[in-house]
Amino acid sequence: MQAESVRAAVAPRRIRAVRAQKSLGVEALRGIAAVMVLSAHALSLLVPVSDADVPGWALVHPQLSSGFQLFFVVSGFLIAGPFLRDLIGSNPLPSVWPYAVRRLLRIGPAFWVVLLAFAIVIGGAWSADDWIAIITHATFTQDLVLHQSGAILPVAWTLGIEALFYVFVPAAAFVIRRHSQTVTAAQLELWICVAWALSVAWELGFSLAFHAPYGSQAVSPRDDTLKLFTISLPGMFCLFCPGLLVAVWRVSGRNFDGARRHPGATVLAGCGLWLITAFAESAIGGTFGACLGDQLRGVAFAAVLVGAISWQRAPGLVLRSAAGLGVVSYGIYLWHWLVIHGIEIAAGKPAPFGGALGTPTAVGISLLATLPFALISWYIVESPCQRLAAAIVHRPPADVPAVALDLRSPPPAAMP
Questions:
Q1: How far is it, in rounded angstroms, from Cα 256 to Cα 216?
Q2: Cβ–Cβ < 8 Å for 344, 45
Q3: Which band of pLDDT confidence, cut at 50, 70 and 90, is reported for residue 11?
Q4: Which residues does 228 contact at the CB level (< 8 Å), separation at least 6?
Q5: Which of helix, strand or coil describes residue 181?
Q6: 304 contacts 270 by C-beta, under 8 angstroms
Q7: 309-342: buried (b, 16+ CB within 10 Å) or exposed (e) per residue?
Q8: Inter-residue long-range contacts of 128-131, CB under 8 Å, 24+ positions, other chains counted
Q9: Which of 104, 119, 158, 349 is the most exposed place for a label (fewest CB within 10 A)?
C-alpha cells in the first residue's frame, strides 16, 4: 500500500518533468527563430553589401529572415493544438474568454510599450499618418489598412498576421463543431492540406497578377495594394499549416517512434532540408522559386518541431541557452529593429561592420544590445501580464508550450 502511494506521488512529478523538457525544446525553437530574424536584419543594416562573405553565406543570409516562418509553424502547433484535440475527441471546445484574455495580454502590452517608445521618439512631430499608424498597430489591424503594414516597425506585420490567426482558430473550430460533432484526424488533415493549397494559390495568383515578389519576399513591395492581399492571413496561412499538421498527428496518437528514438537526427534532417531549400530557391529563382522555398522551409521547420517535442535526453548547454533566449524571444523580436538602428546611428555611418569579422560582430553586438530590452520587457511587462491574465480567468498561470505539448490529455483548467 505504501509503495503504491509512493508511485502515485512520483508519477505526477515524472509527467511534469517530461512536459517541462518538451516545453524546453519549443522554447529553444522560439529563441532560434528570434535570433534568425535579428541576424537577418543586423546583416542587412550593419554589414556592407559589397563585403566578400564566407563562401555559402550568400545563400544562407536570405534564409535567416525565414525565422518568422519558424514562429508561424510553432504557433500553428501550439495555438490550434487544444482546439484540434477537442474536435477529434468530441469534447467541449476550449472556452474563448480565457483564450482571448491570455492571447491579448501575451502579445499586446509588450508591443504597446514599443509603440509608446516610438511615440516618444517622434516627440511633437506628429502627423495624421502617424496617428493612424499608431492606432492600426495598437489594434493589430495594420495589415488590413492600406499603407499601414510596416509603417512604424517593419517586423510588426507578422503580429497582425498572428493576431488574425488567433481569431481564426476558435472561429474555425466553432464552425466545424456546428457542422459535425465528431471529426476524425484524417478529415482535419485533408482540410488543412486543402487550405494549404488554397493559400499558396492565393499568394501565387496575386503575386503573378501584380508582377510582384512572392510571399515572404513581398514584405515591403512598392505596391501597397498588393500588401492587402499577399501580407494577409489567406496568403500567409500556408506558413501555419505544417504546425497544424504536426498538432493533428500528435492529437491523433501518432507516436513519432523514429523521431523519439532519434530526435537529433530528425532535427538535423529538418536543418538539412532548410539548407537545401536555399539552393533550390536560388536555382529556380523568381516567383516560383520563392513559392517553393516557402513551402519547403515549412516542411523543414515541421521536422525540426517534431524532433524538438520528441527530445527526451537531458538538455545540454546549447539547448538550455536557446531555451533561455526563447523565454525572452518576444522582446528580442519587438526591440531588435530599433536597437540595430540605434547601433547604426551611434556608429555614425551606415553598415559600420565590414571585413572578415563583420558578420559575427554585427550579429553579436546586436544580440547583446537587444537582450537588456528583452529582459526588461519580460520581467516588467510580459511576465506580470501573464499573471494578470491568470488572475482574470481564475486559472493558474501557464504559458502555451507546457500545456499544448501534452495535447492528448491536458486538464481543462490548463487551457491557454
A1: 30
A2: yes
A3: very low
A4: 143, 144, 146
A5: coil
A6: yes
A7: bbbeeebeeebeebbebbbbbbbbbbbbbebbee
A8: none
A9: 349
In three-state secondary structure terms, 35 is: helix
Select, from the ranges 120-124, 253-257, 343-347, the one with the highest average predicted confidence (pLDDT): 343-347
The CA–CA distances, whole Å, from 180 to 90, 247, 290, 408 equal 9, 20, 37, 20
Closest-CA residue to 245 (of 229, 256, 232): 256
Range ranked top by mean pLDDT from 227-231, 293-297, 347-351: 293-297
The owner of cell 519580460 is: 378
| DSSP of 158-180 | HHHHHHHHHHHHHHHHHHHHHH-
Measure the CA–CA gap between 168 and 237, rounded to whole angstroms.
10
Q: 140-173: per-residue pLDDT in tens?
A: 988 888 777 777 788 888 999 999 999 999 999 9
Residues 6+ apart with CB under 8 A from 381: 109, 110, 113
Contact yes or no for 305/243 (Cβ under 8 A): yes
C-alpha cell at 85: 484535440
Most confident of the ranges 136-150, 278-292, 331-345, 386-400: 331-345
Centroid of chain to Cα 291:
19
Reported as type and span, the H/E element at residue 56 is: none
Q: Are 43 and 362 in contact (CB under 8 A)?
A: yes
pLDDT band at 12 (very low <50, low <70, confident <90, very high): very low
Cβ within 8 Å of residue 37, ≥6 positions away: 64, 65, 67, 68, 155, 333, 336
- 102/415 Cα distance (integer angstroms): 10
Q: What cell numbers appear for 80 in the block?
A: 490550434
Q: How many Cβ atoms sit within 10 Å of the Cβ of residue 404?
A: 28
Amino acid at 71: F
227 CB-contact burial (10 Å; exposed 0-12 / middle 13-18 / buried 19+):
buried
Please say whether the beta carbons of 326 and 27 come within 8 A: yes
Query: From CA 235, how far away is CA 231, in angstroms rounded?
Result: 6
Rounded to two decimals, the pTM is 0.87
Give the span between the Cα atoms of 229 and 213, in whole angstroms: 12
Q: What's the rounded Cα separation, in Å, for the pair 113 and 372?
A: 15
Residues 6+ apart with CB under 8 A from 213: 207, 221, 287, 290
Q: Which amino acid is at 124?
A: G
